[in-house]
Amino acid sequence: MNKGKITVCVAMVIVFFAAFQMNTKGYLLFAPPLIEQEKIDERFELQSFQLAQIEDLDISKQKLKSDVIQQLIAQKALTEKAKEKELEVTEKELETRMDEIMEQAQEYKDEDYGMGAFLKTQDLSFEEYFNQYMKEEIKTEMFIDKLQKEWFKEFDDARDYNDLEEKRQEVIDDFKAEHQDEIERIKEENL
Fold first, then answer.
1. What is the pTM of this model?
2. Are residues 101 and 66 part of one domain?
3. Whole-number Å distance between alpha carbons of 157 and 159
4. Which tens digit of pLDDT belongs to each residue from 64-106?
5. Which of 55, 108, 127, 129 is the most exposed place for a label (fewest CB within 10 A)?
6. Tally of domains within the chain
């Protein structure tokens, strides 16, 4: 092959991969889902169960699933912002927090309503539930807590929750704008 053909082939490969990288947001083949379907389903199932325990509360499955999706989007936006600011949650911090939460929740694990009943329907032990499902949730909340503490340092009055809420909403709105197509796809698949 002559140099001209090789140069053209190399240029085409570079253009193809550049376009491909833009389409997959930097991932080699496919970008991971913005929010995993399994996470949506787990949260929906848990909240459906919790709401079923409350008498005289009538909320549609579609409204509940929409709320779950909005919660997960907000958590994802705030967690990504925390990571952008290079905030970290160490394994030791996570284990300490999990131990605290598990200790608080221990008294409810055997009840015939609430968490105890939910665990029975899932055929999970208390420890399995926390390790399989709650660990990532707790870690996410810890990232968000650290981010909010950073923001409080920026405010004149450390108790200004209005500034905090404005900052949270700004991050969430920016995230939604950046991921609008993916969010629409998630809604179409779930609602």
1. 0.80
2. yes
3. 5
4. 999 999 999 999 999 999 999 999 999 999 999 999 999 988 8
5. 55
6. 2
